[in-house]
Design a protein that fits this description.
Elements (H helix, E strand, L loop, with lengths): L28 H11 L17 H29 L3 H27 L2 H8 L3 H4 L8 H27 L1
Length: 168
């Protein structure tokens, strides 16, 4: 387990050149607990102080699943508390915090799909301008259309990967 002295120079003492200086010798247990809270957050380190990225795949899956279950329980209790106060408050919360940001993402997707970034670029400056002119005599029309489909597929896969990375 890493110690605080492993995180670099400890002001005002400077770096430990001899390896014998304890920079936190006068730290109380309460202060140490505060530093643990700041330097080792619960969503990144397990109860033994091991960073989630240093765990094996099975340990990572277990660690992330445990955090997801805790968060799901917390969120469900918050929604239930909102519902007990006002039965429509979870609906308004959902629209304000989920639907509205999703509408922004939908608008961005619409702009990307309606503009079609790659096809006009290939038509104007492509290596094979004959392929992009109609009728498609030189190149297969299916392969030409595949460029647009691959753009859409790339956006969808990118959104999924960003969502997964954001959760981890």
């Amino acid at each position: 387990m890493a110690e605080y002295r492993d995180y670099g120079p400890a002001a005002p003492h400077g770096p430990d050149m001899t390896g014998t200086h304890d920079p936190i010798h006068d730290m109380t247990p309460n202060e140490r607990q505060i530093f643990d809270y700041l330097l080792k957050p619960d969503d990144s380190y397990n109860e033994n102080g091991v960073y989630w990225g240093d765990m094996s795949w099975l340990e990572q899956i277990s660690f992330v699943s445990k955090g997801d279950a805790q968060e799901t329980k917390r969120e469900a209790s918050n929604v239930w508390a909102m519902f007990k106060k006002d039965p429509l408050s979870p609906v308004s919360y959902y629209f304000k915090n989920m639907v509205l940001p999703g509408a922004g993402l939908g608008l961005e997707g619409y702009v990307l799909f309606s503009i079609g970034n790659l096809k006009p670029l290939f038509e104007a400056n492509g290596s094979f301008p004959e392929c992009w002119k109609k009728p498609h005599s030189l190149c297969n029309a299916t392969w030409i259309a595949a460029v647009e489909y691959m753009e859409i597929s790339g956006i969808i896969v990118g959104q999924i990967l960003v969502g997964i990375l954001g959760d981890w």
